Amino acid sequence: MSKEVYKLSVNGKTYETTEDKRLIRFLRDDLHLHSVKDGCSQGACGTCTILVDGKATKACIPTTKKSVGKEIITVEGIPQNEKDAFVYAFGEKGAVQCGFCIPGMVMSAKALLDQNLNPTEDEIKKAIRGNICRCTGYRKIIEGIALTADILRGDVTMEEQEKDVAIGDRVHRIDVHDKVLGIGVYPDDIYLDGMAYGSAVRTKYPRAKVLSIDTSEAEALPGVVGVLTAKDVPNNKVGHIQQDWDVMIAEGDITRYMGDAIALVVAEDENTLAEAKKLVKIEYEELEPVRNIEEAKAEGAPKVHSNGNLCQERHVLRGNAEEALKNSKFVVTHHYSTPFTEHAFLEPECAVAMPYKDGVKVLSTDQGAYDTRKEIAIMFGWPEEKVVVENQLIGGGFGGKEDVSVQHISALAAWKFNRPVKCKLTRDESLAFHPKRHAMEADFTVGVDENGIIQGLKATIYFDTGAYASLCGPVLERACTHAPGPYAYENTEIHGYGYYTNNPPAGAFRGFGVCQSNFAFESNLNLLAEKVGISPWEIRYRNAIEPGKVLPNGQIADVSTALKETLEAVKDVYEENKDRAGIACAMKNAGVGVGLPDKGRCRVVFEEGILKLYSAASDIGQGFMTVALQMLSQDTGLTTDQIKIMPPNTETSPDSGTTSGSRQTLLTGEAIRMVCVDVKKALDEVGGDPHKLEGKEFFAEYFEPTDPLGSDKPNPKSHIAYGFATHLVVLDEDGLVDKVYAAHDSGKVVNPTSIQGQIEGGVLMGLGYALTEDFKLEDCKVKSKFGTLGLMRSTDIPDINAIYVEKNKLLDAAYGAKGIGEIATIPTAPAAQGAYYKLDGQLRTKFPMEETAYSRPKKKFR
Fold first, then answer.
1. What one-character-per-residue DSSP string does 368-379 give?
2. SS3 412
3. How many CB atoms lie within 10 A of CB 334?
4. Short-list 593, 670, 653, CA closest to 618
5. Angle subtended by helix axes 514-532 and 536-543, to nearest 10
6. For residues 365 and 392, what is the distance between their CA atoms, to the nearest angstrom?
7. Kind plus residue range of the DSSP H or E element containing 461
8. Which pTM does this prediction carry?
9. Which residues, listed in sequence order, are joined to residue 802 by a DSSP beta bridge?
10. What angle do CA 166, 170, 171 make, to 5 degrees?
11. DSSP structural state of residue 556
């Protein structure tokens, strides 16, 4: 019996298929229209948005059979003048960061503009409400769509971009064209000849003994390449710092969380792969899980790891906090709770690995190519040089792509079966697998004198680090070292403990532990201001750190410190709205610091008249590649078409550390500044002609030593630099967030358009943390879907005002830039909590906050 043939019209051409499958799979796998991104396959994120008969439609919902007779349009099929307009407008307004959501945004916008070429802002917001963006805060995308309409109406002319660019210029991101049109390559866009597909069979229980594993039926299925288990792994442990994470759980061992892999199935195609996974038979003995910190601490608790449930501890002591609190005029003590939080980057984890030379090569999407190389080499027991990792475009990270996820298992399969293998996580697998923001339970006691001057802090912080360590130690350390806030006092006693549980692991997340401890301290500071009889703004201003004064960790604040200036920048707005406004300050380190060898490196090569920059500094959407271009163009005198930024590759690019801790602009940026000195000298010697430097190479490394935690120096230098910020959240009469003012000291602003988008995205992420985001767990099992995480949408955004403060005196590294990525999200949540406290006098000590205009049930304020 012949199969039914489905004829589909896509971008004006007719195609045939006999498979009735989701339209997204036909468009991506059969037609290779890669602008149609697979962000969730659940109809929740909007990355796969296309037009069907002129209507914005998520391609993961309809099937090929249901699409017969309809006109399907993807980004590839829109007219060239519209493509040009979207690329220019999105570049001009800074609408593109990681870029994974952007083609879907373009198609939702096209559906609107085809019907209404003069839309209002509210109409644009409504049009893209079904599209999630985790990077930008939506404002820049809305502005980009409005500008596109202006261009298509003929009201605005597209201007040619300058080729001589410098620090401080508003420069279009160098990847905007490829990201807007969906032609930039993410790992899931790679289809290689002979490529197989791999996926792990994961445990049914968060804690259970694996009694037996039977892969025989799966292996017998036609089209199955093979099934691997723990016995096939040379060294069955990986880990970013602590190697405590099992690649796969072996027969006879105990699972630790729902993301644990037990078998890795590899097949010729994804349909066979899905069928084969169901044929792997695993017998379990279910065990009682360790659900939370209290259970982990309890006497006689099951051990998540053989060495016990305490994963890490940190103790930060300076001065005499006990005595300072005893002598304080006013003292406030409160307990605070914050939840696990999901990164919700739009691109699920994916990697393609292949045999390469005498080892493997991995095409990946992560935050540190050398970190990934290290973990894979540990798994194989190889010298690191046998593993080559090359970054493709990265669809967001926020800390969630620092640990290996699929890179190591794709490498294992490629090596074992001697062929290319793609491994990717479904959205549900991603939610269950990768590390989250740590859940916190904490007690904070803060004392002030009669004038509101902070005297001391005592705090105990407990983190739930889940099943594996990930970055528990450094994140816990940063939560403790930043717990005292950006203020001038030195009596602190902070104890931090990270406990293993059977929950998903917790690790790096934008803010790196500081979001949690900053909330607790800033909340107590509001209560102390009330006791003293001064405003929350005033108590912060009286205590704010200034150049030359000593931070709570003993470090002397450098000349660029501008916390007071950020407070002054929002003072008038605060005074106008103080009955429904909340304010919070924060500081965040730039660079790893604390005595670790944190280095920025770059290599420059001249080839055919082009300066090529090689540096393994991942651009996860923060815009580092464009920052590097601006630095190189300014200091060498070369134009943008004479410079090429190469993708991070461990074979060609020097290690420049992880994209974490707001470090790349400062550390790698300074390495670029250093190398430019030599490059400019060489260019001057040949009359500025880059062709005359053919084959010449230049290298620079930047390293500024710091002091370890617990240093006995009177004034240790913990970090190269700190950024500072003050955020002000203003509520309307209904208790909704109306306006946010985010004043930042990030040193020299390299690209004003980019920093504004970073701040807006960070603010919206902070508001979600405080108000709406809820990563639901029940008995250690993930109950959330992508669509139920509580992510804010375009129709939820307030008016966000980004304010930049630059002092005349700046740091003498990286042109004075200090980075923005992490601090942009830290003070927003406590400022929102403070705003609600001013509005109704109710102290909310846990996130997401209850009894607000966003909670369920919603609180009515009038």
1. -HHHHHHHHHHH
2. helix
3. 15
4. 653
5. 110
6. 6
7. strand 454-466
8. 0.97
9. 742
10. 75
11. B
Residue pair 691/459 in contact by the 8 Å Cβ criterion: no
C-alpha–C-alpha distance, residues 339 and 807, integer Å: 37
Joined tokens for residue 761: 């995205």
Please calculate the CA angle 22-25-28 and round it to the nearest 5 degrees.
145
Contacts of 306 (CB under 8 A, 6+ apart): none
Residues with pLDDT less than 70, the chain: 1
**Looking up tokens 């970013």, which residue turns up?**
240
Sign of CA dihedral 641, 646, 647, 648: negative
Q: How far is CA 763 from the centre of its chain?
A: 14
Asked if 59 contacts 8 with a C-beta cutoff of 8 angstroms, the reply is no
Number of helices and strands in the chain (H, E): 21, 31
CA separation for the pair 701, 590 (Å, rounded): 17
753 neighbors 630 (Cβ within 8 angstroms) = no
Other C-beta atoms lying within 10 Å of the C-beta of residue 16: 10
pLDDT at 195: 98
Token pair in block for residue 563: 């916390």
Cα–Cα distances in Å, from 767 out to 44, 770, 773?
Answer: 20, 5, 9
**For strand 359-364 and strand 387-391, is the pairing parallel, antiparallel, or unpaired?**
parallel
**Could you tell me if 528 and 446 are in contact, meaning their C-beta atoms sit under 8 angstroms apart?**
yes
Strand ranges (E), 45-168: 49-52, 55-58, 71-73
Listing DSSP states for 711-752 in one string gives: --SSS----SEEEEEEEEEEE-TTS-EEEEEEEEE-BS-S-H
Beta-carbon-side half-sphere exposure of residue 749 (alpha carbons within 13 Å): 22
Amino acid at 172: H
Alpha-carbon gap, residue 120 to 145, rounded angstroms: 11
Bond prior to 848 in cis (omega within 30° of 0)? yes
As given in the structure block, the two tokens for residue 859 are 């609180």
Listed residue (537, 454, 449) closest to 834, CA to CA: 537
Give the β-pairing of 330-338 and 310-318: unpaired
Return the closest-CA partner of residue 9 out of 63, 55, 73, 66. Answer: 73
Sign (positive/negative) of CA torsion 441, 496, 344, 91?
Answer: positive
Task: Provide the token pair at 613.
Answer: 């920059």
Please report which helix (H) or strand (E) contains residue 585, including its range.
Answer: strand 581-590
DSSP state of 384: G
Instruction: Give the pLDDT of residue 830.
Output: 98
How much is the pLDDT for 659?
87
493 DSSP assignment: E
Kindly state the tokens that stand for 154. Answer: 């003929």
Please compute, for residue 270, the number of CA atoms within 13 A of its CA located in the half-sphere on the CB side.
Answer: 13
**Nearby residues of 362 by Cβ (< 8 Å), 6 or more positions away:** 351, 352, 353, 372, 376, 387, 388, 389, 390, 407, 410, 411
HEC-encoded secondary structure of 336-360: EEECCECCCCCCCCEEEEEEECCEE
Distance (Å, whole) CA 699 – CA 653: 11
